[in-house]
Write a structure and sequence with these properties.
Elements lengths: L2 H8 L5 H13 L8 H19 L1 H32 L10
Helix pairs in contact: 1-3, 2-3, 2-4
Length: 98
């Protein structure tokens, strides 16, 4: 979501610093919907202002950390599957199995 999109939904302007926090929560907080998120984040701001958004940052950070761990685990899983496939095909392993 772009800053001007948020401000249109809000009917008001926010500072760049505020928008940075809003965008982070919008992107990572697990309670923000993938389909209705723009409307949700604007409603949350209308209800509690930047204080409410900033109170949501620790949960958004934790969700971001977990998402990063999931992506790393998926990448490792793909690497291991490729190694197994290479082993099954009698190919030389270019990486050590970890």
């Amino acid at each position: 979501m772009m800053k001007h999109e948020f401000e249109e939904k809000l009917g008001n302007q926010v500072t760049e610093k505020e928008y940075k926090d809003i965008e982070f929560v919008y992107t990572f907080h697990p309670s923000i919907s993938n389909t209705e998120g723009k409307t949700q984040i604007a409603q949350l701001y209308k209800i509690g202002g930047i204080r409410l958004i900033r109170d949501m940052i620790p949960t958004a950070r934790k969700a971001q950390e977990l998402d990063n761990k999931i992506m790393a685990a998926n990448a490792n899983l793909m690497r291991l599957k490729r190694q197994l496939e290479m082993l099954a095909n009698g190919e030389e392993e270019s990486e050590e199995i970890k």
